[in-house]
């Protein structure tokens, strides 16, 4: 057992809010609008968290590691009853411990064309080669959306809720009211959080535009993308396939949520 796992196990045993039943997970993919929603949720007095902790939920010690992660980033709230994490990559939840599905999950997804354009925009100025092509972004989106559908099936219906980027940004108050009810948050979530003019810290979210706002705003206000749609260097049939995948999964999750 690693030192991190040992420390996580000790923290989980010592802290009363390190229980999967008390946890909130925002499950989505990159560029789905998760930064603003995370900030709103973490602004609630009952919630301790800040964004994406990059923790693999493969054992009971994971929540202790999450709490220690928050403490290290000065984001842990001892009086909070709920621990929060955002997960955007399958390597952190594909082999999740069965206890993971005792938590509450908010699923957030975005249509493929917007998402792929936004991923490519984000990584265009990066030294990382992880998403250096349209095909790589499509691969990630297709894999993650498929993984989210599998995760959706494993959460009990009363512990899961799903929405889309378009619904969230079109009517944030209505979406937040629905999320508050499903998470049993009292008072309900308000559409506001502390603005931060600094560059986003690792795991804290969108470095392109999130620091300009203190609430969830309409997509046409928050976007940094140009209005014209670039032609992707991917076969049309592949684009059509992920469009169909998004439609099928959003129908399954959002309409069934």
Description:
The protein is an alpha/beta fold and about 260 residues long. The protein has a single domain, classed as P-loop containing nucleotide triphosphate hydrolases (Rossmann fold, 3-Layer(aba) Sandwich). It has 9 helices and 5 strands, in the order αβαβαββααβαααα. Strands 2-3-1-4-5 form a 5-stranded parallel sheet, sandwiched between helices. Helix 3 links the parallel strand 2 and strand 3. The mean pLDDT is about 90.
Describe the secondary structure blueprint for this structure.
Elements: H1 3-14, E1 23-28, H2 34-42, E2 47-48, H3 62-72, E3 82-87, E4 104-109, H4 112-124, H5 134-154, E5 160-164, H6 165-170, H7 172-183, H8 219-222, H9 236-256
Parallel strand pairs: 1-3, 1-4, 2-3, 4-5
Helix pairs in contact: 1-3, 4-5, 5-9
Concise synopsis of the structure shown:
This protein is α/β, with parallel strands linked by helices and 257 residues long. The chain contains nine helices and five strands; from the N terminus they run H-E-H-E-H-E-E-H-H-E-H-H-H-H. Strands 2-3-1-4-5 form a five-stranded parallel sheet, sandwiched between helices.
